[in-house]
Amino acid sequence: MEGCTEELHPETNGTNSPVLNEGELTKAVLDLSVNTFAVEAQAETRASIPSNIPENETSEEKEVHNIWVFQYDAVTKELLIKPRYYTITDQIMLQDLPVYLKAGIPSFVYVVTNTGYDNWVNDDTDTSWQKFKNLEQLKKQTLPTAFPLRSIDKVSIPMVGASEEVEVTTGITVTVPVTRMYAKLKVKVEMLKAEMKLNNVNVRQIPNICRIETFAGDGNGEPMNAVPFPDGTTFSSIAFAASDLEKSEDKEWAVFYVPENLQGEIENQGGNKSDAAPTNALVVDVTAEIGGEKYLYATYPGGNSLNNFNIQRNQVYRMTLTITGEKGQNNPSSNCFVVKPNGFLSFEPYYRVETGGGYNFADYLSPHDENLKIASVGIIWQTKDCIGDNTNGTLVQLGENTGDIHQKIYVRTQKKGNALIGAYNSKGDVLWSWHIWVTDHEPDNLGRAVTYYTYDWDNNGIYPEKPRIQGYAVMSCNLGALAENQKGIGTGLHRYPDEMTQAFGMLYQWGRKDPFPPLRNVVSEHHDYNDEHTDLHYDNSNQIEVHKTSGTDENKLFHSVIGSTLTGAVRHAIANPTVFITGTNDVNRNESYVQQKSNYFNNGDWCPIGESDNKLWGGLEPASEGMKAYTINQTNNVHIYDNYGTEKSIFDPCPTGWRVASGELWFEFTNTGLNPGSMSGINYDDKFSDGYGMNMYMQKWKDGPTSYFPTQGTRVGDGGGFRTNSCGNYHNATTDTDNRVNILHIHKDAGLFHIFEYQFYFYYVKSVAGPIRCVRDSK
């Protein structure tokens, strides 16, 4: 056990005047006990377990890992001692925990457990603990973080409790029963037909705030009206993949722990509960696969299945959801689809809902305009047997013309790999194209994602010492990768399925929606982007190879064009999804050429002067007024802006429900939120097995969930390949001024590991093609 028990002298402020006169403290013993979960009486509930059956609690749900101890005068309700933090290393200590308290005064001892922050109440400043100076202030405080939990992860549920009135004497045992501040939500999904498959269970509209005293107020019981959250409250989500159920103690149930969300009861005139749900009510989404399509079903837990939307602390809510096979909510289309080998995909190409950047999808693809209307579909390129021989148009097929946005495209897949399919107008022009990502490791499954917790920041700095800010759930691999991890090191060509490069994802020029296949030749030097350095790729017939070059040879499907020669670069990129648009004045030169800023036009953008657009991936224009901004390096004019935007755009390359990440994701990869001074300042698992990549911690310093980031190389601004053995150059959706991209540049070298790249010009320009790590499009 650790604690602040050595600081027993009165604390003084900067003028040496007493702040809190503790006097001499006495050693006492705390006896903590955890109150049982209450099972909500749910009238007409869908629960498969009757509500009067007690909950079978797990040992993890009762564990206490750290506590804050407060002692208040029973009469004045003022603090008697400076609040102290204790770390619990063994659960047996909870019945005999030595603490230091004020003796001889009738008092109450309050305990708050499992905050995880030893500086929440008392950070050794004069003002920190004064927010807790009286008991009413304590009750109105919120936890430093309120992140949701899953039963299959490390469970540390916040709890609060108070003793009866007690007058402390030496050695006295003070009993404090504690109650969980989170609710327990159990979800079971039953499928009526064998061909139905569960994809994931996702809980959303989880508030990021948890108050010491329930928002319902002390002793007021269950609220019948919605209890408003404080201004600034945001909401998050957490998910179970179907495969995660195998890790669960009870393999039928997905179990979550969430802060309370009190939305009261509504008048329901016999309709569906979902139809009248309050805006902030907690939602359970179930994604199921039926006949090759993914459908989303939403339902609302609460005190009953009719009109109650309260999720109360220390209550258990059990839901059994039956999927009948009736069509749920259609998933809108996107630029990428994840499909399993020997799978079937059906999507509506005209049905798009993205609004980020202000673009209108109907300006590019529309069933009501003959020039923008799909006349045919086919395979532009594919890895061998990914889809197969589509000569007869049976594997990629345009569905019946419905005359509206609900016409469909059907795709049947064969083997793991990647493909790009295209839609053509009656003239044979490419109108739009879609990345078909064929893999069996479910990268788009919410339950496989890891939520990142990044550092707080503002206009004055980045603050690793403060409680972290919950970010978005991060996809488990790079976009287009065929595995999450890789093994081995070496040189030369290592095409898939070689384990050395299996985690390499597609490469994307900033702002473009279509992928370039990754480099597979493990070398450091600049080289041509050609078939000798990549996987082999095939046309619509699956028989004829399509070829590649960094040069301008138009006889090869993959070639380059100099961006400054274009007018309407964005439309050119859409119509020519395999053509690399250089940001340099020439193509396929060499390393020394791409390192020179003078060899680029328009600050390295692939769009010519006058056509640059910082909103292509849904971000906002960086602005000195009206948004949060912090200057990282004044000399090089480097900033981070709060310009992520609230919506993905139609050019975002990620699958439905996912989008390109923001720049603040990378903060927590170092101990300062800035570029590291040494390898010890990088938040990675240095015990991870060999491979060209780094296993990064996503939530805590050197602890907790990790995610693997390959150092898979990049295509630089002249179209050439580069550093497939050492460099990870990750794009995100946000930009700095002067067309600078907020890329993550990772190396197993502290001098080259840059979460803010400004040393190497050729890495942070928009024309560079790098990998992408998608995040959920909402928290």
Automatic annotation (TrEMBL):
Classification via Pfam families: DUF4906
Bias type Basic and acidic residues, positions: 1-10
Residue ranges occupied by any DUF4906 domain in the UniProt entry: 255-320
Superkingdom, taxonomy of origin: Bacteria
Region annotation Disordered: where it falls in the sequence: 1-21
InterPro entries to which the protein is assigned, alphabetical: DUF4906
Protein name: DUF4906 domain-containing protein
